[in-house]
UniProtKB/TrEMBL annotation:
Principal EC category: hydrolase
Keywords: Carboxypeptidase, Hydrolase, Protease, Signal
Keyword Signal: yes
Signal peptide region: 1-27
Annotated spans, Disordered: 36-95
Entry-linked PROSITE patterns: PROKAR_LIPOPROTEIN
Naturally occurring in which organism (per UniProt): Paenibacillus allorhizoplanae
Protein name in the entry: Carboxypeptidase YodJ
Boundaries of every D-alanyl-D-alanine carboxypeptidase-like core domain copy: 143-271
Presence of keyword Transmembrane helix: no
Gene3D superfamilies registered for this protein in UniProt: 3.30.1380.10
Biased composition (Low complexity): 36-94
GO MF term list: carboxypeptidase activity
Amino acid sequence: MKGLMKTNMKIKMNVSIAILLALTIVAGCGSKNEGASTITPSPTPTASATTSPTVSPSVGTTPTPSATTSPAATATVKPSSNPVTSPAASPTPTKNGAIQVIAKPESITVLVNKMNSLPSSYEPTDLVYPNIAFTFSEKIDKRKMRQVAATAIEKLFAGAAKDGAPLAGVSAYRSYATQKSLFEAYVKKDGEEKAKTYSAVPGTSEHETGLAIDVTGSNGKCAAADCFGGTKEAIWLEKHAGEYGFIIRYPQGKAAITGYQYEPWHLRYVGADIAKEIQSKNLTMEEYYHTVPVSK
């Protein structure tokens, strides 16, 4: 009997020890899993955040289609290319709704029209008085032109005089404020719709560039008037203006493109190479630059 009791006690003790060992093992496994759950996630995001955006753009590899890498690659590449591909855009607010303000108004070849406006604060820094005859004697702003255009117009006037078609200047540079006053006066006289066919909204006049001039015959007749067309001076300009870097900016039959009626007296300096091409091909600046035609 005693032997049986001892045997039973040994069995119970062995069972108790087995249960205790089992519980210890289970508890130990549980603490390892918790440790793994706190450590594993932290290296994964850190590795992906540091390697993916840095390696992809610099090496030039194709970005992976994951949601995290694509936007990062796009954000790094686009800002650097924008200033190069879109130089025309300007932070200056537009003055006339859809009209775009020109970013480089000082350019000799700048396209100024009803859709492309100079900044209202723009004023050329190199305005001078060209040594040519005008229809008035006062030394005022409308005698001025930018230096490069002034030098060219002196040569053009000399060439015209030599060929028996002497010219006189009518109006060259105008400030934004002057153009504003002129346009408002024309609107009062003829109404806005009619005024826009022959006068520019302030900011969109080529005269504000300092590169344009209205001319007439040396007798002063037909100054900025339709009767100038067909005169020997107008015919000479059509043939020879390009040789001196000027174009007739608003040619006959192109009003639907330029937005203005025929003005054989309005000359614009663009440089000899471009002027000769525009003249030989009977183009407007809008056609030369392949821009959308300007509506009236």
